[in-house]
Amino acid sequence: MITAITGPVCSGKTEYLIKRINKSFACSSDIEVYKPYQDTRNPGKLVSRNGEEFECEDLSLNMMESVWNSAIFIDEINLIPVEYTDKFIETIFLLCKQENLIYGAGLNLTSNMLVYPQMAAFMAIADDIKVLTASCKYCKGAAQYSEYIGKEEVKGVQDHKIGYDFRPVCFSCKFVAERKEYL
Ligand SMILES: [Zn+2]
């Protein structure tokens, strides 16, 4: 069973994952929690924006191959380097064969509206997809997109900056803002 959790910044993805981890913990399941080491914000732990935490290991696809009969949680799938997407999906299939339950969370879109290939691939093989939304910074409606408000240039998927310089925006406000640029 594969569950994907996706949405923009501030949509509660990590919080959702930590809730699921605590549930598995209560059922005394074997638990493995990972995130890519490329997330340098809180090494060794998942931290949700509402302050909840859980210890985790750096994601290693080779190490994960030896896990059986466990609940596996992976946060920040969008930070797995794009060139590892196929290997990542192969590993997820293998983990399913080894009777693991897999929960994975990550951003849906980059700040320049590109789909994250790692998340798209993961969602394509998921049994269940939980789409979370955040509160739009402009209209307070359901935001699906993460707008970058930092100063560095953001180009492709790999250039997507890690940090807190993002805010959730709904597609309507995003497109209205773009239309205004043309006027
Ligand atoms: Zn809006």
Average of per-residue pLDDT values: 90
Helix segment count? Answer: 5
The run of helices and strands is EHEEEEHEHEHEEEEEH
Instruction: Order the strands across the largest sheet as they lie in space.
Output: 5-2-6-7-1-8
Report the sheet with the most strands, covering strand number, pairing sense and barrel closure: 6 strands, parallel
CATH architecture: 3-Layer(aba) Sandwich
User: Please, how many domains?
Assistant: 1
CATH topology: Rossmann fold
Q: Which hetero compounds are present in the coordinates? A: zinc ion
**Helical/strand content category:** alpha/beta
**CATH level 1 name:** Alpha Beta
**How far do the termini sit from each other?**
49 Å
Low-confidence stretches: none
Query: What percentage of the residues does DSSP assign to strands (E)?
Result: 25-35%
- Write down the Rg: 17 Å
